Hints:
The structure is a homodimer.
Chain A: H1 7-19, E1 22-24, H2 25-33, H3 41-53, E2 58-60, E3 68-70, E4 77-81, E5 87-90, E6 108-119, H4 121-132
Parallel strand pairs in A: 4-6
Antiparallel strand pairs in A: 1-3, 2-3, 4-5
Helix pairs in contact in A: 1-2, 1-3, 2-3
Chain A binds a DNA duplex through residues 4, 6, 8-9, 24-26, 38-43, 45-47, 49, 65-67.
Amino acid sequence: MQLRMTNQREMILRELKKSKGHLTADELYERVKKFMPRISLATVYRNLEILSDVNMIRKLEISGRQKRFDSELEDHDHIYCVECHRIENLEISKNQVELPVEDAHGYTITGRRLEVTGVCPRCQKKIAKTKKQ
Amino acid sequence: MQLRMTNQREMILRELKKSKGHLTADELYERVKKFMPRISLATVYRNLEILSDVNMIRKLEISGRQKRFDSELEDHDHIYCVECHRIENLEISKNQVELPVEDAHGYTITGRRLEVTGVCPRCQKKIAKTKKQ
DNA sequence: CTCCTTGTGATAATTGTTTTCAACAGTAAG
DNA sequence: CTTACTGTTGAAAACAATTATCACAAGGAG
């Protein structure tokens, strides 16, 4: 099954790449809507699913409610701010999180995901301010 | 603020401990209902939230699916089966996943979560079988 | 006992996502 | 150029998980 690049599909991909971030489906929907006012949210969801199926983008399943999508395919982990839910990339060398396979209960390991939580610099400042008052 | 142990609360906690697993709210609901047929799912959600707020249980946010709850408070990670969504504990020594704080974009790190995905032994067998056919 | 707080069950509302479906291209064959 | 086929779209409904609302019952404090 080969992938046809429809206008919508292309636009979604382009906007995701442009943002360089980790957008949710509806954030992306809002952006694409500026160029294609009649596009539907379902189309965004559909195409994000398709694009991640063919590995053109990456679907992040990060704690919190919404799924996020990333145009960066390289293997990397994420840090996310528990205050403002901002997400950023983390470059952690793979061998730093080498897994003890013998403890894996007989599982065939297909992947690992490391998620670091913290408070981003901006929110640290905000918190510092509110404490002063 | 002190926690009152209502019958429902106690039952939910008891069933979660009894299971030793990582139950979703509605799995727990089904179990508790056997003893308290009139309990409502909302009560289960409510109390799981409360119990994890006071650190009597742990809320797991895995893979964007349903939240799961764990009566095991010790710090540990999880491996979960991409086929059947079974979840098991992983004992990974902390220093094996030591983080390079200097890469953390200025974040104050509050936690980390490692999730390993794989195929459990049971599902490996299942897959082997279907391939034979 | 009355007042006040809290917890409860039932149900509605909300949120995020997926499915359905009729209309509509794009392509390939006849 | 028709016909048939395939995949895509937008709109709306369906769905699943969770949370909020609300009337009411239970259990103190005074």
